[in-house]
Amino acid sequence: MKAKLIVYVLVTTAAIAASAAFDDAERSAARKVIAAAEAKFRSAGALDERAITLLPVKGDDDGYCERLIVGALVNAGKVCVVSNDEKKDDRFRRILNEIKWDERQTTLKSIDPSTADELGKLKSTQILMEARLVITRRGRKRRAVAELDLLAYAVSTKQYVWTAHIAVDDAGRGWPDPAEFNVKVSFTGEKSAESVAALVASKVRNAVAGYGYRVNADGGDDLALTLSITKEEFDRSGDYFVYRGKAAARLASRVGDGILYERVFSAKGGRALGELEASQNLADALAEQVLKWLDETLAPRAFFAKHSDFMESSVR
Fold first, then answer.
1. Are residues 161 and 194 in the same domain?
2. Cα 10 to the chain's mean position, in Å?
3. Same domain for 152 and 214?
4. I need a surface site. Which of 117, 260, 271, 294 has the fewest CB within 10 A?
5. Could you say which of 169, 191, 224 is where a domain stops?
6. pLDDT at 314 exceeding the cut of 50
7. Do 163 and 182 belong together in one domain?
8. What does pLDDT average to over the chain?
9. Residue 305: its pLDDT value, please?
10. Domain count, the chain
């Protein structure tokens, strides 16, 4: 379907002046998050062949992002109803004033059905699109991160038919970016368990780095992962050894000195010829359990899903 733009008074979206409200990095983040939104618009069947009116974007003081979103809708082949004199229209201003923005809401679902009907008739539109833009500085490098919430409301059914939440930084990377977080990995324990701890440490550090985090880097620590290893001789028959031990794991936030997770793992290594091989067997058995736990707690897909507020507290 070809893009359609219904214009009451001619408005140009191709050339957009720089916004005084944002600096260069913030404008870059805004452009990139809206470019990501355009890709989602293209695949949004619920928006096809229905006239869309974009309501003023929350967090967009001078209309910079509003114009970008309209352009993205048009580029994605959607029908968009635009008028550049609507804010001068008393009736339109009154309707907009009836759409209340609640800063405490995590979503934008605030359209009153009767107001939606009146706005739909005024604009000859079938879909009202709400948008909230939040730009913050996050991570150690103070990257500009743009978060965009989009909700499409069908005037006829009074139902939300499509929603999207997109977050990218000024380089176009999805947020959160694990590389912005430093994890300090350390081990403690008895001298007899040093060899086991060293073997477990290597596997754990590699796993944490594999998630995309920086490990034991210079500067402050966002997260502290500590494991305390113990080892005891379980069985010995001549030169054959069996060791068992424990790994007490703790993941804490250095920002608020808060303990996020604690867990104790117990394992018994397989019988081996010599102390070194037996220690290796115990280390493998403990590491297997610890790595499974890390995948359930520290992997970005798990950690940031549960600790979305941690991104705010970790801002430098």
1. no
2. 38
3. no
4. 117
5. 169
6. no
7. no
8. 79
9. 80
10. 2
DSSP labels for 107-152? Answer: S-----HHHHHHHHHHHT-SEEEEEEEEEEEETTTTEEEEEEEEEE
Same domain, 144 and 269: no
**Tokens encoding 238:** 């001549």
Nearest-angstrom CA–CA distance, 170 and 28: 5
Residues 185 and 298 in one domain: yes
Tokens at residue 128, please? Answer: 């009202």
5 Cβ contact partners less than 8 Å away, ≥ 6 residues apart? 13, 70, 74, 79, 80, 82
CA dihedral sign of residues 198, 201, 203, 209: negative
Are 61 and 133 contained in the same domain?
yes
Are 256 and 163 part of one and the same domain? no
User: What CATH number corresponds to the domain at position 220?
Assistant: 3.40.50.10610
Report residue 8 as tokens.
Answer: 């009451």
Can you tell me the distance from the alpha carbon of 251 to that of 226, in angstroms, rounded to the nearest whole number? 7
Residues 198, 231: contact at Cβ < 8 Å? no
Structure pTM? 0.57
Q: Which amino acid is at 163?
A: T
Amino acid in position 99: I
CA dist 261 → 131, 220, 273 (Å): 36, 20, 36
For the cut 90, the answer to whether the pLDDT of residue 112 exceeds it is no
Please give the residue range of the domain that contains residue 290.
178-313
SS (H, E, C) 54-91: ECCCECCCCCHHHHHHHHHHHHCCCEEEECCCHHHCHH
**Cα–Cα distance measured from residue 270 to residue 117, given in angstroms and rounded to the nearest whole number:** 72
- Please check whether residues 186 and 160 belong to one and the same domain: no
Amino acid in the structure at residue 39: A
Q: Which of 148, 167, 151, 132 is nearest to 59 (CA)?
A: 132
Residue 229 near residue 187 (C-beta atoms within 8 A): yes
Alpha carbon of residue 232 to chain centroid: 43
Is the bond preceding 113 in cis, omega lying within 30 degrees of 0? no
